[in-house]
Amino acid sequence: RRLITREDPLSLHKLGCLGYTISSAILLGTGLERLFFMSPQEFAVVPAFLEPTMLVFTVSNIIMCAASVRMAFVFRRGDMTARNAFLGTGVSSLFSGFFMVWISPFVEGDIFNNLFISRACFAVMVALNTFFIADTIVSTEKVVEGRRDRKADDYKGRVLMDTLGYVFPVVWGLPLIISTAVIASVLHDRPWFLDQCQFIDQQTGTPGMQAHIFYQQLSTSLGASYASLFVTLRDKKLVSKMQELVGITVFATPALVWSIYTTVIFTRYLFVSH
């Protein structure tokens, strides 16, 4: 069934999408430029001019996620599995946006030096992500069947490929979300986390751990948001199933690789005393 949103072209949701797209392009473009074309010392410094862009991204991300909740309940109320999968990608994007501010070197992140505020935000984010992503895991068969192209011939391995294409991009971040919350707000706090990033820089001899996590959170937010976008485009019959899967993969794969990199490096020095 076609997904008819019936939105005004200048709705708050679409303005949020515009702000999200432009701000994310500036943030990620700046990060990639500094990563690949500048020295590690330059990459390690998140430039001050990105602070207002980060704020625009954060507000736009909240607006988009709030609109996604409404759209999921209004236009997918007859399909609870698809609705919860959409909500799962929404709260995943919201967590990434929150943690990007949390890890940022800007003054907005300092509010999370208050351990109570930090723990409260992590608790809400972990609860929402766990509920909706766990529902997607439990409903894997329904999700895969719901995305099947009924006009095409079935083939061996389709279920596995569709599981990797539709379910894996939603669920792979949950262990990282939970472990991050435990390390950053239960076992330790934000000042310790930032100090640990500096310690890792000293141990590796290559500065930039904090910057890596900052930009990597942006990439995971984009991966979740654009997964929802391509699913919606196919529901509106604007793209084929193959184009849908390619679009999801293009944004999800770099986020996954970057997440693995930062996780491995951070975990390697987690239990090294200093």
Describe the structure.
The structure is a single chain. The protein is mainly α and 274 residues long. It contains eleven helices and no strands. The model is unreliable at 1-5 (pLDDT under 50).
Helix-strand topology string: HHHHHHHHHHH
Molecular shape: globular
Rg over CA atoms:
19 Å
Poorly predicted parts? 1-5
> What is the overall number of helices?
11
Q: What is the makeup of the main sheet?
A: none
Report mean pLDDT, rounded to a whole number: 89
- Oligomer, anyone? single chain
Terminal Cα span:
58 Å
Strand content: under 5%
Write a compact overview of the structure shown.
The chain has 11 helices and no strands.
List the main descriptive attributes of the protein structure presented here:
globular, mainly alpha, single chain, disordered N terminus, 11 helices, 274 residues
